[in-house]
Each structure stands twice: as structure tokens, then as C-alpha cells.
Amino acid sequence: MEYTELSAYDVPPGEVTAWIPTAAPASWVDDDRRLSHNHELHLDTAEAGSWIGSIMRLSGPLDHDALGLALRAWIGRHEALRGTVEETAAGRRRRVVAPADVSVTTTVLGRFDAEDARGCVSDFLADHIDPSAWPYVVFATVADADGFTLVFGADHGVMDAYSQLLWFEEIASLYERALAGEPFSDLAAATTGSHLDHSAAERVTGDEMSLDSESVRVWRDWLTGPDGRLRFADFPVTGITDVPASASPLPQASLSQWLGDPHQARVLGELCKSAGVSFQAGMMGAMAYVLRAQHGVERMRFVAPMHTRYTAEHAAAVGWYVGLVPVTLDISGASTLPEVAVRVQAALAETKPLVPQPFARVADLLGVTDAPHFVVTFVDTRFIAGAERWNSWDARTLRAPVRADDEVYLWLVRDRDGLNVSTRYPETVAAERVVRDLIGGMTDLFDEIARPETASLEGTA
């Protein structure tokens, strides 16, 4: 599974149709469940046109009635997608609509060649996703004689990476069931918990936090720089964020690349097991190992997002189930990859208890206005429902283009097809060189540890 911008996906030529959820104003009702601090911060800071989503290819002629039913059912099954927030004189108010009251309207946008179809879909998603206005998710199809491509874009406030990945199997199954004639009431029956309940519980957790809370103290110490300012740590290689002066941040470069095949992933897994660490620690350890080999970096600090899907009822729900933790990694004296991975494991374990403590509340208490500069995420997608069918669907998770001068994001993925990294970074010559060297170094490292002559798993590079 790759995580890229839409520009990196081969959208076919065909007829582009927009699918937009609608609901009559009278169908909305007030809901007293409170917004999470994270959602509040998102509403305060997110910009219209920023979205995440997924895209897939389905065979056979597009059945408009069946797809419309499936899309309505998907929204109906997940309360996060049929709730909204209204600004009132008394503050923000949550409102919801019943599954049966959600409709989906279609508009044919035109018939295009491949390049123009992709541009049309990209513009449509950017124009229709707004964190302050429902619907928070819209869809598009590109249909031709052999089948159709289906894509959605959603506001990040109601969607995380697992939601993007779970969508493939769920929407394909709903479409298959709709084609078979199942009624809407059966298709829309909820099988998971509600993210709105999760948000309300998270709000209680946040409200209980104060300046004296341990989580707030840890974040304050981590964010405080030599000058006393509260600021996120930069990527540890200097110079890559030196961008030309401009009135607004420049567009970021985006890259996705495979680092290793399934065999190399298994070898890395054995190395991690023998060292007593998680695969996540092994992947992040490889990143740190290579950065030191290439740039002499032995100490680095980054933010690590981790999921908050702690109960079975929320495991397959759509929503923003993410917490942030600050990580300080020192690998001085750790000479092999297993030794570096052990350091990573310890660094992650030190701050993992902070995951349920919403960073948005920390930011509110400390007055933090800065955003993370260096973020490293790990996701294991192998056991997500439908993963065995992703290749047949040309499935891909997507993110919108981003403008930022000082951000470096790495998404490290273990997949049924091996190891992948997706990244965005400043579009500078220096950043391009550093990021491509890092990816090349990690690829070489995974290749090396998988060779028979290095099967002792000591990890040299």
C-alpha cells in the first residue's frame, strides 16, 4: 500500500461524475456530545481544500443506483460522517442526521483523457472539502468501458489513516451487496462504535488535564528550546528547510518508494524479534541508523502519531483516532541495527502513556501555536480487512498537496508486498538530496541484512 498525492496515481480516461452527500436542513437534530479538543483545534487551524482519501478501481460497468446506495450506507454506518458542527452565539454545537436522511446527488463533470480526468477529480476534491461545512466527505468516479475508478476525499478531522485503509473492503462489499439487491436498512446497519462517542470521552480526558499534569510537563520540557520558546524539533539534518523567502509557504515535494520485498520484511521481523523489540522500532531504527551513517546524527527528536483505537467496537470505525507523542532518540554507542532498535523501543515506551492525552489540550494549556516539523509514522497494513484484494483494485491511500517550509513527514509501512516509505518535505535541492539518500540508504540496509552472508542479523551498513 502506497500513500501518495493523486498526481502519482494513474487515473484512466473516462466520464467523471461527482457524488455529493446531501441532507435536508430540517433533518438535522442537536446532539449534546461535546467535541474533542483535537477537533476544536482542527476547526481553528485547518484550511479548506485540505483532504485525505483513497482511490480504487472496480471492474464491471458502473451501476449508479447500487453505488449510490453503497455510498449512502457507508455514511450511515459511521456517525462521524453524518455529524456536523455549527457556530452559534453560544459556541460550537454538534448536530447529526439519521442514516436514512442522507442522500447522494450526482453531477457529470465531463468526459476527459487521463490527465484531464485526474485534474478534474483533484479540483473537485479541493473545492468541496471544508472542515467547517458538511459534507465532510465527497466522492468521484471515472467510468470507462471496462469498469470505473472510485475516489473519495474527506476532511482530516473525521478521518485517519486506518479509516482510509478500511474503506476499500467496506465500500467494495457494500457495492457488491447493493448489486445483489440488499435493502438500504441492512446495508446501513452500524457494525462499529461511534467516533462521536469517542470524541466525547476524549473531551472528558482533556478537561481533566491541567498545567500540573504529567503529560503537560513532558510536552513542555520537550518543546522548550534554548531560547525558552515552545517549538517543535526540526529534522536533524540542517539546511534542508532553507527555502527562498516568499509571501506564503511553498508547495512540498512528495515521494513514495518501496524499501524492501516480503522476504526482506520477514528478515527484519526476525531481527526485531531476536532483539526483543517491535517492528515499528526496527523501521524507525533503520531510519536513525542510516541518518547517522550519512550525516553523523546521533540524537534526534520527532513526533510519532499513534492510534487510540483501544476497544474492539472502535477498531473498524471511521474517525480521527490518533494521539501524538514526543520522541527523543539518542543512539550514541549503539553500533548495530538491533542495538539502535532497542534504543527506539525504549524512547517510544517512555512517552507512549501520553497517547490518550490529547495534544490539542496540551497546546491550549501551554499556548503552543507551532505545528510539528518532523513526524514519523508507522503503520502495519497486513491484517486490515480486504488487504489481500488491494492489488486487484489498484488501491491507494491519498493525501492532498501541502504547503510548508519547515516540515518533513515520513510514513513507514509494512505491507503484504513488503516495506514502503511515503514522505513529504521542502521542495529544495538540499532536502531532495537528503531524503532520497535516506531512502536509498534504508533500501540498501534492508537488502544487506537479508543477504545469506549477513543472516546472523547483526545489522551492518
Automatic annotation (TrEMBL):
Molecular function, one GO term: catalytic activity
Q: Which Pfam families match?
A: Condensation
User: Highest taxon of the source?
Assistant: Bacteria
Coiled-coil region:
none
GO biological process assignments: lipid biosynthetic process
Give every Condensation domain span: 53-369
| Protein name stated in the entry | Condensation domain-containing protein
Organism of this sequence: Nocardioides turkmenicus
